[in-house]
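Q: Structure tokens for this one, please.
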Amino acid sequence: MKNIAILAAGVYPRREYPKWLLDSADVVVCCDSAIEGLLRRGKDADVVVGDFDSVAGRHLQRTKAKVVRNADQECNDLTKAFRYVLENYPDVTDIHILGATGKSEAHTVGNLSLLMQYEQDYRLSQRGIKLDMVSDYSTSFAITDSTELHLGAGRRISIFSPDSTLRIKSRGLTWPLDSVVFDNWWKATLNIASEDVVELTFNHPSMALVILD
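A: Here is the predicted structure, written as tokens:
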């Protein structure tokens, strides 16, 4: 069983929960220049993955991590690190992506959308792998079909989907989703759990992104 943290080069975790995820991980994999943030705080990674176009050579000389160069320009460093984890840690059960938001809105939106792409491409839930993206402000993950979310009443929840044919019936939300058409990003944002357990029923298997504040 492996609990792996992937650290991207966005805003470094400051709050206790994401910091704990990073400190308690069995393996820490850094995306390219994210190693600089670790080293500045007296920490180190197990692996650094990327094309290294944005990290100073002196940092690579300081780290004791395994350095994996990947010059593929068809994907970003986060995807390179994610694929490395799947290929090299067959016993992984939990992957927490940290530092993937902030600094750049474009990177933030792109990285969040990758959660759905990874689930679609690698069928993580079917393989027993839990993947989320955690920042100082939220926890995000992908869902692919009807599910129950044990959130606790009062938790704020937003749901996004690229599939305009998807319909979701809900139970346990302040504002039901039954009539929502997912044809724009704002449509199911800033909802609130009115019960401890939220039930989401899809009209067909699809992809959705859940963000919990």
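A few notes: The radius of gyration is 18 Å. The chain is about 25% helix and 30% strand.
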